[in-house]
Design goal:
Blueprint (H helix, E strand, L loop, with lengths): L1 H25 L2 E7 L6 H12 L3 E3 H10 L3 H10 L7 H12 L7 E5 L5 H11 L3 E9 L2 H9 L1 E4 L5 E3 L18 E2 L6 H15 L1 H8 L3 E6 L4 H16 L1
Parallel strand pairs: 1-3, 1-4, 2-3, 4-8
Antiparallel strand pairs: 5-6, 5-7
Helix pairs in contact: 3-4, 7-8
The structure holds adenosine monophosphate (AMP).
Length: 245
């Protein structure tokens, strides 16, 4: 009797597992891709978009920095590229991204910040997202002078990742996060020399993705990311909301 009960339980579990897997595979996703040079405000706006749209914010830069802090093999390999403002090789970043988007919190979709950055990454993402739902790509455009000024004055919370700026958006208390009281720090690669290299890498490897997404004839928008932060955010949110309704 016990044996029959155990077999029936296993069959029931297999059925539940099958339908759950099926539901995960067929649930339509909303994926938002934020394009734009370093300092365009992708991270800042992604944090707010994530709260409004109830979708997780995935920053490949944050995941890599977490690996650096924990001194994982991935972190060790990535460090040599990140320190000098170069891109981490595609195979490493692509696998890392695929692992992250397979987490259950990404079932309904996610917001990508800093990915894709190369044509190979964009093509892999297309392949992965095929028939899975809506993809909205927004390019945040800003002039180079403003980017350098924004990046070199940037401070980030060690605990929750909230970004600040020494002049444009300072914390209430020096070096402490307004939200969680975590310690604020200046990223190693946010100095003028590395920023110039990051911008050059952006122009040669990432900027061509703007045309790639335009030519795909999917949902592609440009949002001017200079000026008042909350106005930029409202514009960005409105653009996304009207396209995913
Ligand atoms: P971010 O925080 O997006 O400015 O990224 C910081 C650094 O992480 C970049 O300068 C790259 O070295 C690396 N990185 C982040 N995302 C990617 C990506 N999608 N592909 C390659 N390297 C990346």
């Amino acid at each position: 009797m016990k044996k029959i009960f155990a077999i029936l339980s296993l069959i029931a579990l297999a059925f539940v597992g099958f339908f759950k897997g099926e539901a995960m595979a067929t649930e339509k996703q909303t994926v938002i891709i934020l394009l734009g040079p370093p300092g365009a405000g992708k991270g800042t706006h992604a944090v707010e978009l994530s709260k409004k749209l109830h979708l997780p914010h995935i920053s490949t830069g944050d995941i890599l920095r977490e690996n650096l802090r924990k001194q994982t093999p991935l972190g060790e390999r990535a460090k040599t590229f990140m320190d000098v403002g170069k891109l981490v090789p595609d195979d490493l970043v692509i696998q890392m991204l695929l692992d992250r988007v397979s987490d259950t919190d990404c079932q309904k979709g996610y917001i990508l910040d800093g990915f894709p950055r190369t044509l190979a990454q964009a093509k892999m993402l297309d392949e992965h997202l095929k028939n899975r739902g809506e993809v909205v790509t927004v390019n945040l455009s800003v002039s180079d002078d403003l980017l350098v000024e924004r990046i070199t004055g940037r401070l980030v919370c060690k605990k929750c990742g909230t970004p600040y700026h020494k002049v444009f958006s300072p914390p209430k208390k020096d070096s402490l996060c307004d939200r969680c009281q975590g310690e604020l720090y200046h990223r190693d690669d946010d100095n003028e020399k590395v920023v110039k290299e990051r911008l050059a890498v952006y122009r040669s490897q990432t900027e061509p993705l703007i045309n790639y997404y335009k030519e795909k004839k999917g949902l592609f928008y440009e949002v001017l990311a200079a000026g008042n932060k909350s106005e930029i955010f409202e514009n960005l949110l409105h653009t996304i909301q009207k396209s995913i309704k």
